[in-house]
Amino acid sequence: MSSSGVTSSSRPGRWGLAVKLFTTLVLLGATAVMVTGVLGYFRARDALEKAVFDQLAAARQIKARQVETYFRTIHAELRLLATSKMVVEATREFRIAIDKLDRAGAPPELRQKVGDWYAENFIPEMTRILGREPALSDYLPVGGAPYYLQYHYIAANPNPGERRKLLDDANDGSEYTKLHAIYHPLMRAAATTVGFFDFMMADPKSGRLIYTVQKEVDFTTSLQFGPYRRSNVAAAVARCAETADRSAVCLEDFAPYAPSGGAPIAFMGAPVIDEGVVIGVLVAQLSNEEIDNVVTGGRRWRQEGFGDTGEAYLVGPDHLVRSGPRAFYENQEGYFAELKSVGTSDEEIAAIQRYGTPVLHQRVDTKATRAALAGVEGTGEIIGYRGVPTLASWGPLEIPGVKWGLVAKIDTAEAFAPIARLRQDLLIVGGLALLVVAATAAWLSRALLGPLRELTAGVRRFAAGDYGASVPVRTRDEIGQLCLAFNGMVADLSQKNVVIENKNRENEELLLNVLPAPIANRLRGGEHSIADGFAEVTVAFADLVGFTALTAEMPPQEVVTFLNGLFTRFDVAANDLGIEKIKTVGDAYMAVCGLPVPVANHAERMVRMAIRMVHITREHAMQHNVSMKLRVGVNSGPVVAGVIGKSKYIYDLWGDTVNLASRMESGSVPDAVQVTRAVYEQLKDQFVFEPRGAIEVKGKGKVEAWLLRL
């Protein structure tokens, strides 16, 4: 009987193993469901992303071809007109007629009337556009013919401004008017047919616009000496006047054009050649409206598949848009609010409002625009000009004479909205699965034997910090043996835990004295090589002026005590402002703000730290009755930070930003804070700075610097 009893009591219970096997199978099944769901989610996301990028690339390529075709068409039509007999004869005859009027001059009373018309009609419009009243003399024409013809065709024109082109005969009896009555209806019809905003003829010798269809204030003015000598039309005429090649076409990019009310205007010129000699330049004035209509799809973004946030836009080499952003047309109030939110300058916003268009006034400098202007096609997720994640396709346009990039984009949130719904559905299914697993676990917890529950309770007590916890050993099966092992482990760990905690506490304090808390945590997490790049931080160097001479006769203990007291106060100030002390070298103190945890106002915090350091140094010097001043240098920019060393760690910074901050300190003046342009530009509205001009910096040459007024 005794033998039989021993055998029964020592036999392992099989119910526990069965439950464990069942639980394992359930968990494996749940894992399989989760893995399948996750894989399905990511594959669906990748497929949708590819489809969106393909659609954006296709839309961009179509619009690029449309814009390129538009310019090729204008090119061909302009060349055809420039070689026509009508244009050649009109150019020759208009030149002769203009010369006659120049020699005849214009009466003073006629000049006065033209000046009065400018003052009443043109100057107020320019004042509204420029935001200031320009001088009347800056825009008045030069020469007798311009005054004469502008009076008859502009000032005395019976038609309103936008319909001046309807006047064929000014009835002044001049030779020019007779020619105008013959050629103007033909020229006006040609401009309307091919879609030119204006159609001009220029004399390459004088640079004068001897004929225009629209009769704006550039009519008969000189592009060499007049108010528009620096305009893009002057550049187009000058280029075409130098070549007798009938196939030559000179295209000048869009720019605000004063005669057209500051609207964005491009000019395409073609030489008018007679017997191998350039006798004129035929110029087409191109409005931005045609290109804007192509790129925006007639402002039918939803019909073109761009959804609620998608669009396409053009940018030029100056990163200014050549077509209007969607938000400008759909919601101007929200558009201007977004511009403010992403840091657009008030001057840029005011220019858009004055000119009534973002074209040539809104700057878009993103990864996509930079790549497109560099001639690179591509797709990817970027931060758009509105400051939100965006899926985009970009590429250059092939238009001789201009360097443009085209971007088609849609907000990532809208593009991935179906994936968000799929993720929600998967979370619901996953939640139901978790409920099933929880119900199974509850059943298992009720079905397990009492010793297992007691063991679990003991483990929990131990995990909660009760290092004297123990559990009764009621069986000799696997659970009983586990209880015995647990009790032995608890007894052993209880003895060792005190020692370990004391050591850990000591190590923690030592590590945090050497390294920032996030870096220390990463080291404890197993990272062996820590090096990070930070795009924007602020670094400060401080140095005690005359400290070496001051402490030359002091005992070593007093030197250390004096310096420790001062730097301890620096440390307290740094901790209050969220600034990380990097190191001290002798009487020099180095700190940084913006890492390892980035902060938005790192420059402001560091300057306030510098101010405190100067005041603390003054107080410390007064308390110890010594003469001592602090010199501080501050700079902002990118750095590389990392941990070096194996047996003795040190967290340090490297980069040009650090070097320049050190040079700012060494080149500063005692009892002052010297900053670079990068810091000045960020804080010039918050602090008062005094410019020092360009100072000599070792390894840099001349560098601008400012002193903070304390």
Tell me the CATH architecture of one domain: 2-Layer Sandwich
Distance from first to last alpha carbon: 98 Å
Q: Which percent band covers the strand fraction?
A: 15-25%
Q: What's the CATH topology name of one domain?
A: Beta-Lactamase
- Quaternary structure: single chain
| Gross geometry | flat
What's the name of the CATH homologous superfamily of one domain? Answer: PAS domain
- Give me the Rg, rounded: 40 Å
What's the helix count? 22
Number of strand segments: 17
Q: Determine and state the CATH class of one domain.
A: Alpha Beta
Helix content: 40-55%
> Average pLDDT, to the nearest integer?
86
Which segments are poorly predicted (pLDDT under 50) over 5 or more consecutive residues? 1-14
Which structural class should the secondary elements be placed in? alpha+beta
The biggest beta sheet is recorded as: 8 strands, mixed
Entry keywords:
710 residues; alpha+beta; 22 helices; Alpha-Beta Plaits; A/G_cyclase_CS; A/G_cyclase; five-stranded antiparallel beta sheet; Beta-Lactamase; transmembrane helix
Describe this entry's structure for a reader.
The protein is an alpha+beta fold. Among the domains are: 84-286, Beta-Lactamase (2-Layer Sandwich); 467-513, no CATH class; 517-708, Nucleotide cyclase, GGDEF domain (Alpha-Beta Plaits), CATH 3.30.70. It has 22 helices and 17 strands. Strands 10, 11, 12, 13, 14, 15, 16 and 17 form an 8-stranded mixed sheet that branches. A 5-stranded antiparallel sheet has the order 2-1-5-4-3. The chain has a 4-stranded antiparallel sheet with strand order 6-9-8-7, with helices on both faces. Helix 3 crosses helix 5 (144-155). The chain is flat and about 125 Å long. The protein starts with a helix and ends with a strand. The model is unreliable at 1-14 (pLDDT under 50).
